[in-house]
Every structure is written in structure tokens, then in C-alpha cells.
Amino acid sequence: MPLLVSGLVGRFVTGLSFRPCVLSISPKKLTSPIPTKDSGTLRTIQQGCEYMAAISKEREQRRHWQQVRELIDQEADVDAVSWNLRIAVLKDAKLDVAAMA
What we know:
The chain is α+β, with helices and mostly antiparallel strands. It contains 5 helices and 4 strands, in the order ββββααααα. The protein has one domain (9-100). The strands form 2 sheets. It has a two-stranded antiparallel ribbon. The chain has a two-stranded antiparallel sheet with strand order 3-4.
């Protein structure tokens, strides 16, 4: 079952195809903030979902983003979602390392 973020309509991967999803999850805090170069700082899973809904289809098709979406859809623990979200942002060279200092 897809999760939704405050009425936001996003996309998620099912096999190789995308389909709309509506995300509605509680605003659980990530284990630590994730500063991005293109969208401010992600502090909650909800903000992570909004970030994923805004990325390009090309980026969304990458396996690391599919893994993050799967974890959120499975309602995995916050540690797993936080770690994989941080790795996905890092792999896309969008982690603002200077803001972490």
C-alpha cells in the first residue's frame, strides 16, 4: 500500500513502471537532518517523501531511490529510512556536506 504525505501526489516505482501515489505518513523525525544542495534540509520522513516526489523521473528510476521508496512503503524503522535516504541524496551528489560541518 503506498504511503502519502499530507495530500501530496507523487510517483513511485512498481517494477519498471511509475504510477501515481498519494502519501500520508506521520511526520516522524529522521535520525539526523539531511542537508541537500537543491531543497534545504530534510528533517522528517514526510519531507523526504516530498523531496522524492519533486525529483526527476531519471533520478527516481535509480535503484537507491527505489530502495528508499520501498522502505517507506513497508513502514520500515526510522533508522533504515534515514540511512537509505541519506545515501540516496549522497549518491546523487546532492548532499550539502558543507552544511553538515
